[in-house]
Design a protein that fits this description.
With 351 residues, the protein is an alpha/beta fold. The protein has one domain: Protein of unknown function UPF0759 (TIM Barrel, Alpha-Beta Barrel), CATH 3.20.20. It is 35% helix and 14% strand. The chain has twelve helices and ten strands. The protein has helices at 53-65, 94-100, 102-105, 126-133, 148-151, 167-182, 201-217, 236-244, 260-266, 287-294, 305-320, 337-349, and strands at residues 13-15, 71-76, 113-116, 141-145, 186-192, 196-198, 224-227, 248-253, 275-279, 325-329. The strands form two sheets. The chain has an eight-stranded parallel β-barrel, surrounded by five helices. Helix 9 (260-266) links the parallel strand 8 (248-253) and strand 9 (275-279). The longest helix has 17 residues, at 201-217. It is globular. The chain starts with 12 loop residues before the first strand and ends with a helix.
Length: 351
Amino acid sequence: MPLRARDVNLRYVRVIVSSKDDHTPSLFGDAVEVPGRRTVRPRVDPSVAAEREASATAQFVALRAQLSPRLHLGTSSWSFPGWRGLVYRDACTEAGLARDGLAAYAQHPLFRSVGVDKTYYRPAPREEFTRLAAQVPPDFRFLVKIWRAVVELEPFGGGSAAPFLNPTIAVRECVQPALDGLGDKCGPLLFQFPPLRFQTNRAAQEFVAGLRGFLRALPKGPLYAVEVRNRTLVGPELGETLAEAGVVPCLTVHPTMPELEIQSRELALDASRPLVMRWMLRANHQYAEAKDLYAPFNRLVEPDDASRDALARLARAALAAGLGAWVIVNNKAEGSSPLSVERLARAIAEP
């Protein structure tokens, strides 16, 4: 049975969510553009700056050849105009890239995946996933974030049909459209839980128990991943819950979480399941601060060698065991996720 809002004592657990209105752009860029502003659609091209395009592309192709085809590197979304010269050749608006940029993004030799982040804010129908799948090569795999209503207790709780930890709603609104639309190009389906504030151990245990029932009720077959943002949840109880349901933990570099090695050890990674990781945010910044500091995301502002090396070690171990490995990188990790992916790829290929 799904864990409903009324089943949780709200004195003990609440989700820390933003109170500001959600003005997230529509999933595939059908936002209204500035009148009179010409949108240049990106060319399907490896898309590096003109002065280093030929040599850099050759280097990326050679680097890709050193990497396992089971390794899926990519970024959190693709619609960043500041990536001109790194991923895109032409000047584009954010809306133009959201609509037309994925085909160009997927031509970059190192990108075998991308995070579909905007499905966290609203579900997408099968037809929109089908449109995405048509723009990428056969070996490309998407990491799809599940709708926030399924993983946030507030402000979505209340009523017998509350979406929070409701497997029926999760499958109908999120899982099945992604599977039907993406087909073989569907990678991990990610349940990313926001920070939860537990005032008692019992509250944390109730959450894990509710999560256990929810995961067991999901249809078998897809690669499900769970990411938490509470270091107090990182331990054997959560690891056993995920393993019993055939779900993998998503290890994450984030200020609210312990180091990657601790996560991998405490969550007891399944040696027979793919590895899923996300490189999200440096420990010395909050999200909004990093966004302001790093924009327009076209250079490495604060390289994080420790996180890069930890991600590379874990990825190499998974690949050596014959498993798949996903690493999705955010601009807020170091300043520019395409450049971070390049650094990470070299660290994996040349330890």
